[in-house]
């Protein structure tokens, strides 16, 4: 059932409009968010409007924050730095407990491509993303809250089938920035939370933010033979290993939930027992496949019910004609 879409309409610029000062060819620019439009945007009222505003906020605000990620008894504390310079987003994440780790990502963390596999499509606009999600989830308000000393509107995504989990998002009432995210199982119990506990005053970028075309990845000779409705293959995620081994990675999303699918030779330290493995709030479904003289290991990882991931990895398809001769052990 679709949401009544009285949508926020803010201009997302197509590929052929490259803002001044961006040193890139037109062919490499996918989408441009004109963050200045937020200054005159109408207020968000309905849940779908709040979610669209959060998509814009994810691209258009700079800030620093402290956060916690909680799964069962495991608590991870993090420092986050989000910046925008010359229209390009960058995110830096530092882990403050456990082993010393950090992650750096440039070019934006939130994009969902609706185009079919093999097509180079621009990321879905916020309104198109909401329309897609409304076919998979019931979007509704779930009250208000106070997160990082800021008032938040709580928006819930309740799945319309048993093939995915639910989500609850706490969105800053002033900016729309996501302040907290909770993953919910089929009974509504919280599986994982990610929450900002401290936030510097967010700064709206006074210009256009550019999402560049992802780097092309090596083609792979296999694909997911079955996926839950609404999942679409996403760019940038079919990666060879640093050692140039035959390892390959594909990434699928329905706009909220994700599935990572790996296929690699069964050897070395990466060997896993076939079946299901718990990874925090996620599961990994593992299958072994015999192809000629080689044994492959297929792994599906995601924020989905374990039976769904097992079905994904069981129905893996190969491009070659002898795919029907493959067998799982």
UniProtKB/TrEMBL annotation:
Residues 48-200 form the MucB/RseB N-terminal domain. It comes from Halomonas cupida. Residues 218-315 form the MucB/RseB C-terminal domain. It is found in: Periplasm. Belongs to the RseB family. It comes from the Bacteria. The keyword Signal applies. This is Sigma factor AlgU regulatory protein MucB. Coiled coil: none annotated. The keyword Metal-binding does not apply.
């Amino acid at each position: 059932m679709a949401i009544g879409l009285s949508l926020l309409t803010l201009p997302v610029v197509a590929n052929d409009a490259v803002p001044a000062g961006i040193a890139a060819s037109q062919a490499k620019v996918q989408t441009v968010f004109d963050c200045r439009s937020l200054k005159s945007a109408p207020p968000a009222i309905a849940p779908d409007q709040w979610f669209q505003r959060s998509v814009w906020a994810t691209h258009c605000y700079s800030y620093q924050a402290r956060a916690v990620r909680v799964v069962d008894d495991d608590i991870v504390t993090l420092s986050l730095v989000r910046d925008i310079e010359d229209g390009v987003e960058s995110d830096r994440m530092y882990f403050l407990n456990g082993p010393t780790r950090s992650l750096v990502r440039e070019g934006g963390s939130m994009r969902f491509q609706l185009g079919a596999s093999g097509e180079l499509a621009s990321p879905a606009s916020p309104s198109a993303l909401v329309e897609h999600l409304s076919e998979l989830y019931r979007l509704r308000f779930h009250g208000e809250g106070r997160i990082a000393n800021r008032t938040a509107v709580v928006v819930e995504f309740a799945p319309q089938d048993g093939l995915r989990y639910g989500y609850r998002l706490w969105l800053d009432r002033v900016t729309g920035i996501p302040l907290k995210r909770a993953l919910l199982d089929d009974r509504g119990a919280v599986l994982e939370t990610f929450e900002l506990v401290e936030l510097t005053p967010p700064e709206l970028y006074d210009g256009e933010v550019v999402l560049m075309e992802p780097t092309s990845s090596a083609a792979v000779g296999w694909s997911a033979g079955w996926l839950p409705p609404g999942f679409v293959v996403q760019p940038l995620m079919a990666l060879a290993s640093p050692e140039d081994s035959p390892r390959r990675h594909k990434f699928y999303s329905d706009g909220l939930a994700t599935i990572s699918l790996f296929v690699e030779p069964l050897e070395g330290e990466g060997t896993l027992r076939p079946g299901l493995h718990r990874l925090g709030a996620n599961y990994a479904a593992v299958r072994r496949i015999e192809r000629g003289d080689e044994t492959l290991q297929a792994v599906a990882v995601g924020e989905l019910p374990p039976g769904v991931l097992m079905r994904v990895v069981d129905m893996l398809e190969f491009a070659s004609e002898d795919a029907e001769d493959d067998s799982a052990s």
